[in-house]
Amino acid sequence: MLFQVEMDVQIPLGLAPEVVEQLKKTERERAQELQKTGEWRHLWRIAGRYANVSIFDVASNEALHDILSTLPLFPFMRVSVTPLCRHPSSVRSDDS
Ligand SMILES: O=C(O)CC1=CCC(=O)O1
Fold first, then answer.
1. How far is the CA of 52 from the centre of ligand 1 (A)?
2. Is the overall model pTM greater than 0.90, yes or no?
3. Could you tell me the distance, in angstroms and rounded to a whole number, from the CA of residue 88 to the centre of ligand 1?
4. Muconolactone isomerase domain location, by residue (predicted)?
5. Mean pLDDT value across residues 23-44
6. What lines the ligand 1 site, CB under 6 Å?
7. Most ligand 1 atoms within 8 A of CB, residue of 6, 7, 10, 35 to mutate
8. Among 3.40.50.880, 3.30.2270.10, 3.40.50.300, 3.30.70.1060, what is the CATH number of 2-84?
């Protein structure tokens, strides 16, 4: 199942810089693991914002929730999820 996920990151100003750096490092490592398994299919920065738009390819709503809610930066994100399905006019073979 494909989902578009937008993650808006809002790290509190008072958080210690070393804690922020560690969170970003573990977030990057987890994101790269999930990209290698194919579950996190695309990851794009939204220009001008500390936010990304991503495409996930996972087995279920629960699987998506488990992934998102265990991301290191999850406590500091606003997340919006849009379920996707194949467009009948798509010429791409990997859209579903
Ligand atoms: O920087 C972001 O948008 C948050 C994030 C998601 C994966 C990652 O490495 O950082």
1. 7
2. yes
3. 31
4. 1-89
5. 98
6. 7, 9, 27-28, 31, 51-52, 73
7. 7
8. 3.30.70.1060
- Is 90 exceeded by the pLDDT of residue 47? yes
User: What distance in Å separates the CA atoms of residue 55 and residue 10, rounded to the nearest whole number?
Assistant: 21
Q: What is the ipTM of this complex?
A: 0.97
Residue 73 CA to ligand 1 center (angstroms) comes to 8
User: In this structure, are strands 40-45 and 77-84 parallel, antiparallel, or unpaired?
Assistant: unpaired
Tell me the domain boundaries of the chain.
2-84
- Ligand 1 centroid distance, CA of 95 (Å): 23
Mean pLDDT of 34-45: 98
